[in-house]
Amino acid sequence: HDSGEAGGFLFYVMPYVEGESLRDKLVREGELPVPEAVRILKEVTDALAYAHGRGVVHRDVKPENVMLSGRHALVTDFGVAKALHEATGRQRLTTAGVALGTPAYMSPEQAAADSHMDHRADLYAVGAVGYELLTGQPPFTGSSPQVVLAAQVTQQPRPVTDHRPGVPPALALTIMRCLEKKPADRWQTAGELHAQLELLATTPSGGITPTSTRPLEAVAIGNIRVRIPVWVKLGIAAVLVAGVALSAWYLTHRAPKLVAGRIVVAPFDNKTGDPVQNVLGESIVERLAAAIAAEGMDAVPAAAMEAELKHGVESRAVIAHHLSARNGASVVVTGSYYRRTGGVEYRAELLRMPEGKLIVAVASGGADPEHPESLERFVERTLVALVANQESGGQEFFFAGVTLPASLASFRELVRGDGLRGDDALKAFARARALDSTWLLPLLRMAEVQVNRQYSAAESTLALLDASPIQRQGGDRDMIDRMNALFRGDLEGAYRIVRRMAGRDPLSFSQWAMFAALLANRPLEALSYRKYRDVPSYFNTGARRGAGLHLALGNAFHILGRYREELDLGLETEREFPEDPPSWLTMQIQARAALGEVHEVERLVAKSEGLHAEGAGSSRALIAGLELAAHGHPKEARGMFQRALSWVRSTAAQQSTTSEQLRRDSIDVLYYCEEYEAALAASQSWLARDSLNWEAILDVGQSAARLGDRATALRMEARLASVHRPNLRGADTWGRATIISDLGDQARAVALLRQAYHEGSAFDHTIHRDPELSRLRGYPPFEEWIRPKG
After folding, report:
1. What pLDDT, in 10s, does the model give residues 243-278?
2. Which is it for strands 343-352 and 357-363: parallel, antiparallel or unpaired?
3. What pTM does this model have?
4. Which residue in 16, 306, 576, 790 has its CB near the most CB atoms, within 10 A?
């Protein structure tokens, strides 16, 4: 309001704010309710968007600098240090290697005194404040400012939901994106973050509005606002006078039923500040609707409704709900465009209806309105997102931070490749790569196939990925690093990367993290992700994948000795996925055998013998026998092994030629029945036909070791070492350990097991029952090594 000089000191006068600071509120109340936290963050980002638009970066956003006046948050103390620097030219004081700000809320670049720091440092601080509002503590704490600053630069914060599981995943993801180490991986503007928080404020639970927080709803139609009382929510129909408006209840329950695949293209907001550019918004709606229709999808352009919707509507989420209800659309495309240096930036958001959940956001990366091809690229990318959502559920392709393809043809080739095997899949991925060289996912898919088939080719593909200049976003880099870790057999490293990905985007990556934790012998950590088991994603878009997730969780329970919980999950899986008996039968047999419920085990094995899949009867009987033997039921275990042997012999007699799988099952069953001479003869016959088959070499070595033929066993172990191949991921080294274990060299056997793990041989939940390792049980180094890490 005023400024001047008094007694040799400069002063300025600001408005008096009646209220308390956000810090005062946090000290008094601790973590805040989700709706209140979202409201405060929304108002803070609104203030920052205004400031950033005028070239002012705050540099010290923290709860002490947010005042609460009435029900509104005000941001105070805007960049005093920076203003002093600009006014006095004292550059060395404020920028040359000096970190200005408060350590707990400072971005990595601010903590490192990076001279190129920009407005995105404030967005990091907003994330730190949001983290504290939701969890009661900032992302990093420490015994000194130096410790906290170091953590800001080097450590990943724990996911918000680790501290407070009830936080909606969409909100937790929004906060974690603010806290990305690299500015390019965060929200790019305060306006962009504010728009996301507005959406969350409309549906704070990620799609389900709690009635306790929203007793009255307002929906705007025309220029009339109608408030809907709670009794309407309870199902009492209201007829509004003169028929000039419809309530939100009416729109939700009386509008046309949502049509799967129908898409509304809503008006795009002109954020350029220039009304002349309104024509761009109209153009993008027309082009998108035409492109969607050309792909055979049901598109409804809504540009003609723009004038009607502008009156009295505060939130684009309300517009989206209105358009969806009026048109029966299951997806709404909405968006905005902004002035950027040299052109315009477009952003589209796909919202799944009726919950209003964000499916994916698509950005143009800059578009020159004078060159239509730049706009066409944005239209194509948005079209890819829509087609991905319609054809595949979208989850696999909408990982947070992973670049979308710019070519619809490339996307479709990749989808085709996912349905193929071997060389056919590789050819499809290569075509996808040729159609869009900026898209990294086809190369990642190629590497995944090559690791198991063409190991040297995988190395070349990963080198291409590492050298790619198109790693603009953290998600791309994480995907590449994960693949490199798996290629090297670094299961711990792969888990750390996927855990970080799950922290940023729990909906997309928690199931990956669950599997990665199991492979790294971390069953408790695997179970921490179980609440995401039914979220549609890469692993469970079909029944087999969904049941497979349940089986993985059951294995985690089994490792921990929580057999009753494993059994309950097995029964639940049978109810949920009756068409996938291998998963629920395995869980139930393992659990009941461990619990000593022998009659139930026999019933389940008999049930599995009715399945027609090759090996189904023998494999379930073997599982039952191994578990019964491991849990003190040797007589019943032998009965199960004999049952498996009878089943295999009966099946072999009915076949004109013996398949490799049946041959392998026959040798396993003979070994477990302690018919070692027969197992040795069968495996020697197999090895004579295929002298380089590492499994045949292993079978000969194991049977010879059990028969006391030390010379043959050691010769086979040496042959296994000589035919070692990296693509076996340590399986051959693990096999060598079993031979050495049977020969009584415990120390060397454990050393080989450790080596196998470092080569990529995952921990198996069956290690406690593995008869090949029976001579290691009770040996302290072995017991210590197999103990779950987390």
Report:
1. 222 222 222 333 345 555 678 888 787 877 777 777
2. antiparallel
3. 0.58
4. 306
